[in-house]
Amino acid sequence: MLQISKFINHANRTLVSAYCEIGEGLELYEMKPLGRAILVAATPTFDIWEDLAEKRFKSLIDLVNLLAKKLKTSPEEVRHSISELKQAFFIEQTLEQDPMAKRRYEILANTTLEALVGPESVAESALKDIAQKLDLMQQMSRIPSEELLEGFSVSEHEGRVRIEWTGSGSKENQAEKLSRTRTSTTSTGN
Amino acid sequence: MKANDYEPTKRLNGTSVSRFHYRFLTVFKKPRIVNERPVVEFVTPAHVPVFLSELPMRVHADLDLQELGFEETWSLVILLQLLKKNCWKDIEPIKLSDYSVSTAGVPPEALFDPTKLHLVIEVSQ
């Protein structure tokens, strides 16, 4: 039980801290060599940066697989850990800005809910499903969402997402050109 | 990917439509016409039939997040990018291949019924 708690604390820290406590730091670490050097030198637990950047979901995948294995021998403790895992996914969902990532965490949280309330056989298959989904997230994290949605405007309202790209000949594009022409004319006039 | 990996096309109310992974319906509102027929490109690595389109250049999706499955949170945006990059390609009509539409031998579960698809993407306007 102690081992599982230790593991889940680490997993929660990896998952949640990336966005709320040190989210900006992670960006600095990943994007700027000088920022990386400063962070590594100044942070007492500097290994967390490497952990976050390189193995973002690995500890979670290991944890979920471990929970699936331990389910039969210590079901109560595992249910407790699944409950914490569910909370971590819900927290992550609320912190996420990208609606697609938000949806992914919602699905993960709902699957952990199934694992929490279902019989052991359901819990086991749900945990394996979560581990597979996390593995996919790990693979896809090499292609950032910003890159996938490059050029598109994204907005979300009451559970609906609107994604749009406009180029030449669109109403939005024509309005923008008209606006620029007006601005330019005004500037010239002044 | 399904065992019956049909990604069909259809004409619908003056537009042309295609299906992606049995879940996404793409409505091409202004397909480019050559010799009285729309020009279609089959984007091979992605298995997507794309109707080349007239201006305006616009790709648009408005959908309920709850409808999206886990993998679809990625496949949707990949499809959107694919449409953005392929719908307004330059073509030389003389180099186009001829085609015919076939419905023979399609298994019932692979038939294309646009009314059953709720995840809709619009191209052009």
The radius of gyration over CA of chain A amounts to: 22 Å
How confident overall, as mean pLDDT of chain B? 90
Outline of chain A? elongated
Mean pLDDT of chain A: 74
> In this structure, how is the largest beta sheet of chain A organized?
2 strands, antiparallel
Total strands of chain A: the figure is: 2
Largest protein interface, residues of each chain: A-B, 32 and 26 residues
Q: How much strand of chain B?
A: 25-35%
Specify the structural class of chain B: mainly beta
Beta-strand proportion of chain A: 5-15%
Total of DSSP H or I helical runs spanning 4+ residues of chain B: 1
Question: What does this entry look like structurally?
Answer:
The complex is a heterodimer of chains A (190) and B (125). With 190 residues, chain A is mostly helical. In chain A, 74% of the residues lie in helices and 6% in strands. Chain A has 2 domains: 2-18 and 56-148, no CATH class; 153-189, no CATH class. Chain A is built from 10 helices and 2 strands. Chain A has a two-stranded antiparallel sheet. Chain B has 125 residues and is mostly beta strands. Chain B has one domain (9-101, 108-123). Chain B is 12% helix and 31% strand. A 5-stranded mixed sheet of chain B has the order 1-2-3-9-8, covered by helices on one side. A two-stranded antiparallel sheet of chain B has the order 4-5. In chain B, β4 and β5 form a beta hairpin. Chains A and B meet through α7, α8 and β2 of A and β8 and α1 of B.
